[in-house]
Amino acid sequence: METPAHDAQPTPAQQALDALAENAEDQAALDTLAHSDVLVPVPDDAVDGEGADASTVALPVLEQPGGDPVVPVFTTEGEMAELLPFVSRYRLIPLGALAAQWPEGELSLAIDGSSAHGLTLTSQGVRTLLVR
Q: SseB protein N-terminal domain location, by residue (predicted)?
């Protein structure tokens, strides 16, 4: 009998998210998160262009209630399927590397947005907290 995904042991990234929910200044949790790989959804209609720069990634931008743009990323396939069941492709990227290339502007980052341990960071928070 298989164990449902939500009953599985939390990943180190999820444990870091839980720690940050209790203490947003937890440097060990921020370091763990920055060094964790996250799943960045790739829309099924996205085209893998020939000659595309492999070091860049197109960020999927959703609009939050209220109109603020947010990029959703996930710690596991199960978390991604929970919020975006229609997305079947993703890129696995170290969160710190993603943060180091974060665009200017008011683009927030939501990590496991639909879960109990989800975390949303402002654009400034991404650049200051996760760049390692």
A: 15-127
Q: Kindly report the pTM of this predicted structure.
A: 0.82
Does residue 1 fall inside a structural domain?
no
83 falls within a domain:
yes
Per-residue pLDDT 10s for the chain (132 aa) are: 444 445 578 899 999 999 998 998 899 999 999 999 999 998 766 665 544 455 667 888 888 777 789 999 999 999 999 888 988 899 999 999 999 989 888 899 999 988 888 999 999 889 888 876
**Which CATH number do you get for residue 24?**
3.40.1350
Rounded Cα distance, 21 and 85, in Å: 25
61, 107 in Cβ contact below 8 A?
yes
CA 56 from centre of chain: 16
Assigned domain for 85 exists: yes
